[in-house]
Amino acid sequence: MQLSLSTWQEVESYLTHSTGIIIPIGSTEQHGPNGLIGTDAICPRKIAAGMAEVEQILIAPTINYGMSLHHMAFTGTVTLKPATLMRVVYDVVESLYQHGFRHFYFLNGHGGNIAPVTAAFSEIYTEIKGDDIQPPRCRLSNWWRDDSIAALAAELYHGAEGHHATVSEVALSYYAYPEAVKQVAMTPEIAPTGEIYDAVSFRRSFPDGRIGSNPALASIEDGERFYQLAVDSLLADYKTFLNQ
User: Fold this and answer.
1) At what angle are helices 39-54 and 220-242 packed, to 10 degrees?
2) Domain at 136, CATH number
3) pLDDT (tens digit, 9 = 90+) per residue, 133-147?
4) Sequence-distant (≥ 6) Cβ neighbours of residue 21 within 8 angstroms
5) Number of structural domains found in the chain
6) Residue 217 lies in domain
């Protein structure tokens, strides 16, 4: 059930049996030579849609922009400042809370969002006092950090999964949009790893945008496997969250 495709009456009816909503959140940033700029938003949006096919869950519109300041040396990246992202998260929760939602499950596709989003949760808990029955509850779930996802990536790609423009995320984005698959040779096959500090140091150290990965290994078939694992695991996590 998509919030954007529902009427206000349908949302009001939904709230009679659930106070939970899933909010996909990602970024608009470079993902190496063959990764889609929308990867980090595409992946959680696809997973959330799969969860809603199994259970009656309301899915909010995806927050497509994230904290991507460190990617700004790569053309096409669009970023929010940390404070801006915190404000967006706060305002989304505050709006939905006024309508009766109490459980806000942010399904995340981008590591750069973790710090500002969790900081926003602290402000929400402090400033949105809630009622005597149920104050707001928020969770940030990073789809790629699931144990089953990590195990499959290790099985399929060994040391080539990497840390940015990973094979698993590129594969999942290809499963979502098979018409957008790119065939690009990687040089070197597996990108180097190391620390990043700002956009300039990122581009200098990792000129094609990858960190430790070989996303040329990504396939639609692998993407489907990651998708199914993520739907199953995150659906179980969401159900547990609703009882808190």
Assistant:
1) 60
2) 3.40.50.10310
3) 689 999 999 999 999
4) 3, 57, 58, 59, 60, 96, 101, 103, 104, 105
5) 1
6) 3-237
